User: What shape does this take?
Amino acid sequence: MKIALANEMKKIDKRAIEEYGVPEILLMENAGREVAAAFEEYLGGVAGKRLCILAGSGNNGGDAFVAARHLMNHGAQLSIFLVGNPAHLTKSAALNRDIIIKMGSVVHVLETERDWDKLQVTLRFVDGVVDGILGTGFSGGLRDSAARVVRMVNSHGKPVISIDLPTGIEADTGCAAPEAIQADLTVTFGLPKFGHMLCPGETATGKLLVDDIGIPKALLEDEEIRQTYLDEPTVAPILLPRPLDAHKGSCGRILVIAGSRGMTGAAALAAAAVLKSGAGISVLALPESLHEVMEGKLTEVMTKPLAETAAGAIDVAATSEALALAEGFDAVLVGPGLGRTQETQTFVQDFCSAVKKPLILDADAIYAFRGKTEAFKNFAFVPILTPHLGEMAHLLGLKVEELRTSLLDMTREAAHEYHAVFVVKSECTTIVYPDGQVFITSKGNAGMATAGAGDVLAGTIAGLMKQTAAGLAPLAGVYIHGLAGDLAADEKGYGLIASDILENLPRALRTLC
Assistant: This one.
């Protein structure tokens, strides 16, 4: 399934109307009917229940008026409020407002304090609220009247269904106005939006339902839409079938360069994840003083000692040996737990610039290239970087808050400029390719906010490098890692740890093979 930006969804609607002849009023009818049906199911029926309908003056408000009609026909008792200027109602919204009035409902306009008091009392006693104030066109801040309504709705804690997007959430970023509706359920039309998936928008959205409302399928699958929802049908074809004559060498030989004194766990998790994700061979190169410890800690992973600094981190003197070692591998993962000593950063820079193998850079290896991102363009292969939001912001010279305001655009620009694949870890991990293609995962949970989860992800992507079609290991890795986290959460809840994700990688992988 594609994911639409606000302007893309606007164009899709326009094309459906102008090229295919689908009347706007029909799209509004379908949207409102789906909202009513979803809320009726959510509430366990609406007959005899009191509902508050909040409608804006745009087509989002028109959808709300249609939903009101269907809810009324199913026995709901309605209190309807227009949040906006009646003179600004779109033609289709005004038509549906007039229909509901002819059916005997009153549409209250919030003009006087008496009107506001009426809304306050209504919200106190209703069984649910339909939020149709603003949709995908919103950005920035709410007008005073809309903000006041949102505060009132949120303060009463009644079940809320939002139409397309919760009022106060930006469609392309997930950013929220100071006041934004906190919905229990959101019904969106055509395609999901980024605002449904990135916090705080994800939190405000509640359960998300997507309905095509009769928009021609070809418009929803247009190749010009370069954002894709990463789900099982998308990922399953990426994995290459394993032949009967497969052997450990043909399934992927992966070198992991990781670890430093006090951070052996990151190295162990990453190297083990390589094997748990199906690769045949995983070799961990690490500071020589840690070699004996890791040989006892890891059974299936082989280890290789490298020259180290006095602080127990890999020294720049290990560069030549590491380059020679890498010749025998299909891909190299660099970074988990390496530390940030100057000698180690120099090692990372020199090694990555010289090695002739595909690279996955995580954590401290990404840190080593702050201010030196131009180097990525000269790597032998397009590198895969796996930063969390803090690391991504640091790499771009931004604060996390600044990055969040335009995560998609900034990451897209960086991937193109630096000729790198970015796997940006957040509440909903996003993969961005240099050609502008973006994938956002459908898997993962808040329990995965635990130390070492990112190391497992980096190892999973590395382990899949030989098992997937060229360049697609990040997609399979992110999905499988997220699914493994979901399986772990089913058992451990928020008490899951990174090794729980690690242990569930084979189960997750099996669902796709």
Observations:
- The first helix runs from residue 6 to 18.
- The two ends are 21 Å apart (CA to CA).
- Residues 6-224 form a domain with the Rossmann fold fold (CATH 3.40.50.10260).
